[in-house]
Design a protein that fits this description.
heterodimer; A: 325 residues; alpha/beta; TIM Barrel; two-stranded antiparallel sheet; B: TIM Barrel; eight-stranded parallel β-barrel; 10 strands; globular; IolE/XylAMocC-like (chain A); Xyl_isomerase-like_sf (chain A)
């Protein structure tokens, strides 16, 4: 390290927080609206934009695995492309399963072996890259699980304890992300669920908007469970779910009758998430590691992913990093 | 941006027609986007009418109360200030009775100087450095420049430059690819017709390239006159006389010049870009260029996306620190 670099390091306090971007994206090109996986060129453009605005890394969905193999040569090779654009790595993967009651339902014990085998295979596929978390929705769709009973919560918890043991064998945390339309989304049900899970194997992943939509205060939830929170999706919402918003197939984020667009970037006017309180809580609990920014479906109602991503980053730098960085 | 060069970004691409970039929240989103990308200063563009509320000093003041109020608006988005403002005195404006003026017409000179004053005063009040002006109208709209025309054009810009200098503002003449001052020789003659103490050149890398002038070579030749830079790329050059097409703004730049060119201007680092951006920026550094380098998207695509790609290029390919 040169003298200049040493001097610069002494001037710049060590960062406790790094920022990752969960890779929802759309752009318009000659082929119309496409996502970044459309071609190597669109992927390069996406990665440049994420890096340019100051993110350190990306998160992705694990269902991209086969595209990574087909288009880039696998997760490690894809990660090389990520790094070629100046980003550190892939931090988290989101395991978006279909949750078919017949073969993939955490509250249905008969499906557990299938789910466990899924994770044994999945973790092997991803073993070529260093991951912090594999993120799951810990329950089926709400209406496939209701009535939500303590017994169902306990059965689900027992499954995720076993899954977490598998992922821990690969050095990856199993962490649960509670969509407002999943079976475990209310505050009492979340509390019961975690009371049956083993903190060594099951972590909590706070999605600020999802909890707000489900009428759960994400800051209070985080403060109660900070010791087992392994990551965050920082995104905002302007609406709380009403009536049976959480009971729509295939996905209430898309189909809920009251609200066409649920998610907004941090800093949006009329946002319901108190990000300053959230960041204060993160600071108070001395959290160190990654915060992921997400604003899925930002392109709805005339929105634009590129702009939303830049504005979210502006908010992180100009508001949140003044509280804790 | 933290660099030996000073970087700014032009807002013009967001303002594609009179009613799309009016709401202050929309303007804030653009400003925050640029701030997040490391651009602490912006370039404005002159316009007309109440919808174009970043386009004229008096309209800006109606919206923000005063120059200080406008600066406070920018700073609420973590943008520190304004580098410059683009102005075309040949563009008729409602505020001046839609008068059609030409810098080659000496009878228009007094009115042109007068119409520059509000912009100069405004730029001085907000601490901006350059009035960036279109020196002459499009070639297709007028007869070829005669022997005395460039002298006349030089005279009016010397006069505007004197007004600007008195207010502590620089004047930079911006070459564009449709201009009646088109060839390198004509550009040299224009510079020679102006007082170097009062009038500089705004060198636009893509416009020069489209016009058939190598921006690196021209900068090397006349670097002492360059007081402002617009940095952008292009994949195409005028094949000859396309700039003389009737209605060239529409038929050439927007209509594809009969070659189905959908877009002339591109982000830095674009595949097939004709501008040697690295060589140009290296030349700026070598000569200790003191002015603003304004990155422009200029009708290229999604404004936020292009600003992000341009910022990536600055950070990763030109080693400019974002913060």
């Amino acid at each position: 390290m040169t003298a200049d670099q040493l001097a610069q390091r002494s001037e710049t306090p060590e960062r406790r927080i790094k920022w990752s971007y969960m890779d929802h994206w759309r752009s318009n090109g000659p082929a119309g609206p496409v996502d970044q996986w459309h071609s190597h060129r669109t992927m390069s453009s996406f990665l440049k934009q994420i890096k340019a605005v100051g993110f350190d890394a990306i998160d992705t969905f694990d269902f991209r695995l086969w595209q990574m193999y087909g288009d880039y040569g696998g997760p490690a090779k894809y990660q090389e492309m990520v790094q070629d654009h100046g980003l550190e790595r892939i931090v988290n993967i989101f395991h978006a399963a279909d949750y078919d009651l017949r073969n993939y339902a955490p509250h249905v014990p008969e499906t557990h072996e299938n789910i466990l085998e899924d994770f044994r295979v999945t973790m092997g596929h991803w073993s070529s890259v260093e991951l912090d978390n594999i993120i799951v929705m810990p329950a089926t769709l709400y209406y496939d699980m209701e009535p939500v009973t303590e017994d169902k919560l306990k059965i689900s918890a027992e499954l995720w304890n076993k899954v977490g043991e598998i992922t821990a064998g690969y050095g990856v945390k199993l962490t649960c992300h509670h969509e407002f339309f999943c079976g475990i989304q209310s505050e009492p049900d979340i509390e019961v669920f975690y009371s049956y899970t083993d903190p060594r194997y099951v972590s909590l992943f706070i999605d600020t908007a999802q909890h707000c939509i489900a009428s759960v205060d994400p800051v209070a939830l985080y403060r109660r469970h900070a010791h087992r929170v392994s990551g965050f999706h920082f995104k905002d919402t302007r609406n709380v779910a009403a009536g049976d918003d959480h009971r729509h197939r295939p996905d209430s984020e898309i189909m809920a009758p009251t609200t066409g667009k649920w998610f907004y970037e941090m800093g949006t006017p009329h946002g319901l998430v108190d990000f300053e309180a959230m960041m204060t809580a993160v600071r108070d609990n001395d959290y160190r590691g990654w915060i992921s920014v997400e604003h899925d479906k930002a392109n709805k109602d005339g929105g634009d992913y590129a702009e939303s991503t830049a504005i979210a980053r502006w908010y992180a730098v100009n508001v949140l990093e003044k509280i804790y960085r | 941006m933290r660099d030996t060069l000073r970087w700014a970004y032009a807002l013009n691409q967001w303002n594609i027609r009179m009613d799309v970039f009016v709401r202050h929240e929309d303007q804030r989103r653009a400003l925050k986007t640029l701030s997040a990308l490391g651009f602490g200063h912006i370039e404005l563009a002159a316009g007309t009418g109440r919808w174009d509320n970043l386009g004229r000093p008096e309209v800006i003041e109606i919206n923000h109360g005063s120059p200080e109020g406008f600066l406070a608006f920018l700073r609420s988005c973590s943008v520190n200030g304004v580098s410059s403002m683009f102005w075309d005195p040949g563009q008729p404006v409602e505020e001046e009775g839609w008068a059609f003026r030409s810098t080659r017409n000496r009878d228009d000179h007094a009115a042109i100087v007068e119409s520059a004053k509000p912009f100069v005063d405004f730029l001085a009040a907000i601490g901006a450095e350059q009035l960036v002006a279109r020196p002459v109208g499009s070639a297709w709209m007028q007869p070829p420049l005669g022997r005395d025309d460039i002298a006349a054009i030089g005279e009016v810009w010397n006069s505007v430059g004197k007004v600007a200098a008195a207010a502590g503002v620089g004047l930079a003449l911006h070459y564009d690819c449709l201009s009646a001052v088109h060839t390198a020789d004509e550009l040299r003659r224009l510079l020679d017709a102006t007082d170097p103490e009062l009038v500089g050149l705004a060198l636009d890398t893509a416009e020069l390239t489209i016009g058939g002038i190598d921006p690196v070579a021209f900068y090397e030749e006349r670097h002492e006159r360059v007081t402002h830079v617009h940095l952008k790329d292009t994949r195409y050059a005028d094949t000859g006389e396309e700039y003389r097409m009737p209605g060239a703004e529409t038929t050439m730049l927007r209509g594809g010049a009969g070659r189905r060119i959908e877009r002339w201007f591109f982000e830095l680092g674009t595949e097939g870009g004709l501008v040697d951006v690295k060589a140009f920026v290296a030349a700026l550094r070598r000569h200790g260029y003191p002015g603003w380098v304004v990155v422009e998207s200029d009708h290229g695509g999604n404004p936020a996306e292009l600003a992000m790609l341009n910022s990536w290029y600055l950070q990763q390919e030109l080693s400019v620190a974002r913060t």
